[in-house]
Amino acid sequence: MTKILITEDSLFMRNWLKGILQQFGYTDFIEAVNGEEAIEKYKNNNPDIVLLDLTLPVMDGLTALNKMMEYDSNAKIVMCSALGTEYNVRKALKYGATSFVVKPYFQNLENVIDRALTN
Q1: 25-41 tens-digit pLDDT
Q2: Domain range annotation of the chain
């Protein structure tokens, strides 16, 4: 069973993402509301994939991404943000993100997750 860590400060968006992922057959979720908590939950739960928002309280998504990749260079992390500027996308991919999905356009999320898990 694929374990997914959803890091998103908005409860509405976390629940919406879980609903979308459940339609794809995923049911094992871990949730974090900020970058610091995401790192802690990543280390303690070893998820198969992380969905990580860019704009988070306490620690932003890019910093959390960088720290997760330092901890585990094989981490599968998909950035999900409404701030899908070319700069943010390039920075996330440079830091090691597997992919970048612009919220709220999750039509390709299943394919993005499948590709991340198989690479």
Answers
A1: 999 999 999 999 999 99
A2: 34-46+54-81
pTM of model > 0.85: yes
Tokens linked to 76: 């599968």
3 state DSSP class of 107: coil
Q: Is the peptide bond between 104 and the residue preceding it cis, with omega within 30 degrees of 0?
A: yes
Sign of CA dihedral 41, 7, 19, 87: negative
Three-class DSSP category at 114: helix
Closest CA to 27 of 35, 38, 19: 19
Band (50; pLDDT cuts 50, 70, 90): very high
Is 98 within 8 Å of 77 (Cβ atoms)? yes
CA-based radius of gyration for the chain: 13
CA–CA distance, 81 with 51 (Å, rounded to integer): 10
